[in-house]
Design goal:
Rossmann fold, 8 helices, 11 strands, alpha/beta
Length: 231
């Protein structure tokens, strides 16, 4: 049995270019699907957030619109409620990578607000990458990569090929023109190679011990790759 650390946003809002706040948090599917796959395989999960804040699911990710109808919305809400680890997260500053066999970052717009600039998360990501342990990140979760810097100030992920939420998806989601910055642009500026598939299609990239997924639809195949890496 392995122990996997879920590093999750503690933000429940994303500050837009005009200073207003877009209510958000973590995207439920991106946490629930890997969680259920890992637990079904007999693995243990722990949750960490900046400051040990209890993470908030994005309301949109619990809506019928994004869960396949009212029945899906109820199932998703129940699945989030069943993740007991969400109610007692560890503070990121107190995390020791030695205690875990793998690290996973789900997305949602929340990481654009806090994990993108969180030094503790950045150090953890740099250490996880260097350790060779499986490191999985999905959708907007790669915003956290922006805080991971080497001793020379360059990105710890420069030269890595990844999947992440794309500019096209942000445009189609209706928030691109309101954002202070776009994830794909910032990752490319850091020397990270963003490998894109068609919007809203499952797409997972594996580069060394780094496993990344483009969007919520990539959650299940990403979980499959993480399980392979743990086997």
């Amino acid at each position: 049995m392995a122990k996997i650390l879920f590093v999750m946003t503690g933000a429940n809002g994303w500050t837009l270019a005009d200073g207003t706040t877009h209510r958000t948090g973590f995207w439920a599917e991106e946490a629930v699907v890997p969680y259920q796959a890992l637990k079904a395989a007999g693995h243990e999960v722990a949750v960490a957030t900046p400051g040990g804040v209890v993470p908030t699911p994005d309301a949109g990710s619990l809506s019928a619109q994004f869960t396949g109808g009212e029945g899906g919305a109820r199932q998703m809400a129940d699945a989030v409620a069943a993740m007991s680890e969400l109610r007692s997260p560890i503070a990121l500053a107190e995390v020791s990578l030695d205690d875990y066999d793998a690290v996973f970052y789900p997305g949602g717009h929340g990481p654009m607000e806090d994990l993108a600039v969180d030094a503790d998360s950045g150090r953890l990501l740099t250490a996880a990458l260097a350790s060779g342990k499986p490191l999985a990140v999905v959708c907007h979760g790669p915003a956290a990569l922006l805080a991971a810097k080497g001793a020379d100030g360059t990105s710890s992920f420069a030269g890595y090929r990844i999947a992440a939420f794309t500019n096209e998806e942000e445009v189609q989601g209706g928030l691109a023109d309101k954002a202070k910055w776009l994830l794909e642009d910032r990752l490319r500026a850091d020397g990270v190679m963003v490998d894109k598939a068609a919007p809203w299609t499952p797409h997972v990239v594996v580069d060394r011990n780094l496993i990344t997924g483009q969007n919520p639809m990539s959650s299940a195949p990403l979980a499959d790759e993480l399980l392979k890496a743990l086997s």
